[in-house]
């Protein structure tokens, strides 16, 4: 019989904003079960809401208690960002309005952008020294930029935005087209913004060990595929009648898990890559400071952009278009006085 040593480790404090909403609800039970930080890592959950969302968060906390998760060291519920981020090691910024049919994610900038400055400032004021922030609320990249700009004393590399959902969509759709298992797909990259301009790039992807562009029709890979991945969020809204929830929660959990525990290596010893929106230092010509999606690996608790991949003219144009949109969003939030 194995002896459970969970209690020997200090709990990690995970702050979830929007904990009374859909994605928060889908995420918190998996986090408390150990899916994000591992089966031996106790967690303390901080549920941060606005007053209207407090009952939802309270109800969810009651259900958490009813699960009696051995790893759950405690749950706090608050509508005060200062208390919500105090000592936070992981901050998952989900709370904000989702788009509805007919909207682009960028249309949420004015409605949601104002949330992220005060939350960034509260993270800067009170979070733990090792805080890692993932922004899920849309438009995620630019909201992450806003939060980061309000926390000048926190290393910029600790602010990220979620494009893992796009990455997972891109992997799933490629596997289906090629008729292989998801586990046989490697090297897919999402570049740019979590928006309709994003570029799911198969230039360096492989399917069962062979170049993806040989395994599927290249005109599909550089046409309908890109469109389908980039507009998958809208497709879900259309079919489900509401924006993605469980797949978004799953992607956010995978993003944090890989960030903290590492992306590791495949059986052949090659580092496993994924996609995440991180602050650019000018890699691949993306202007410094923008929060853009890149091919990344993580080890030692830090994301590292995979450099040196060849970028052909087609890819260069697609990346450029998405980055131009990120620049326009940055300029718009400057105009609005949000940064
Ligand atoms: N990046 C991605 O891949 C991705 C994927 C799916 C959804 N999203 C985005 O995630 C966000 C949340 O989606 P949802 O379905 O959970 O929405 P939801 O409406 O179900 O829940 C949002 C919750 O956030 C709370 N909230 C609002 N302002 C807040 C604040 N200042 N502090 C704390 N909480 C606050 C609300 O009270 C509500 O309970 C949306 O912006 C959506 O577009 C992003
Ligand atoms: O598309 C949306 O508005 C929700 C989310 O960003 C998604 O990609 O599913």
TrEMBL record:
Single GO BP term: malate metabolic process
Keyword field: NAD, Oxidoreductase, Tricarboxylic acid cycle
Active site: 194
Main enzyme class: oxidoreductase
Annotated substrate binding sites: 99, 105, 138, 169
Domain of life: Bacteria
Family under the similarity heading: Belongs to the LDH/MDH superfamily. MDH type 2 family.
Function comment: Catalyzes the reversible oxidation of malate to oxaloacetate.
Name of the protein in question: Malate dehydrogenase
Organism for this UniProt entry: Leucobacter ruminantium
């Amino acid at each position: 019989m194995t002896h459970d040593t969970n209690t020997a480790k200090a709990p990690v404090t995970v702050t979830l904003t929007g904990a009374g909403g859909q994605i928060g609800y889908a995420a918190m039970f998996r986090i408390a079960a150990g899916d994000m930080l591992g089966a031996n890592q106790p967690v303390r959950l901080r549920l941060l809401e606005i007053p209207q969302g407090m009952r939802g968060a309270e109800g969810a906390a009651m259900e958490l208690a009813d699960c009696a998760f051995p790893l759950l060291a405690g749950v706090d519920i608050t509508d005060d960002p200062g208390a919500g981020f105090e000592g936070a090691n992981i901050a998952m910024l989900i709370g904000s309005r989702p788009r509805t049919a007919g909207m682009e994610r960028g249309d949420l900038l004015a409605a949601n952008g104002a949330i992220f400055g005060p939350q960034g400032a509260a993270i800067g004021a009170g979070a733990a020294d090792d805080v890692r922030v993932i922004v899920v609320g849309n438009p995620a990249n630019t909201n992450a930029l806003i939060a980061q700009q309000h926390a000048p004393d926190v290393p910029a590399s600790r602010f990220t935005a979620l494009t893992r959902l796009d990455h997972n969509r891109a992997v799933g759709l490629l596997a289906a087209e090629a008729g292989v298992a998801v586990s046989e797909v490697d090297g897919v990259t999402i570049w740019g913004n979590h928006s309709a301009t994003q570029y799911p790039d198969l230039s360096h992807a492989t399917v069962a060990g062979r170049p993806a562009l040989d395994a599927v029709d290249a005109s599909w890979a550089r046409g309908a595929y890109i469109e389908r991945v980039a507009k998958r969020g809208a497709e879900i809204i259309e079919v489900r009648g509401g924006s993605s929830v469980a797949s978004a929660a799953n992607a956010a959990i995978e993003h944090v898990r890989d960030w903290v525990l590492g992306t590791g290596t495949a059986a052949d010893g090659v580092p496993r890559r994924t996609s995440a929106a991180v602050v650019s230092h000018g890699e691949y010509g993306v202007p410094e400071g923008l929060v853009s999606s890149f091919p990344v690996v993580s080890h030692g608790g830090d994301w590292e952009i995979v450099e040196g991949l060849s970028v052909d003219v087609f890819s260069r144009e697609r990346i450029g278009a998405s980055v131009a949109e990120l620049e326009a969003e940055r300029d718009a939030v400057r105009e609005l006085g949000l940064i």
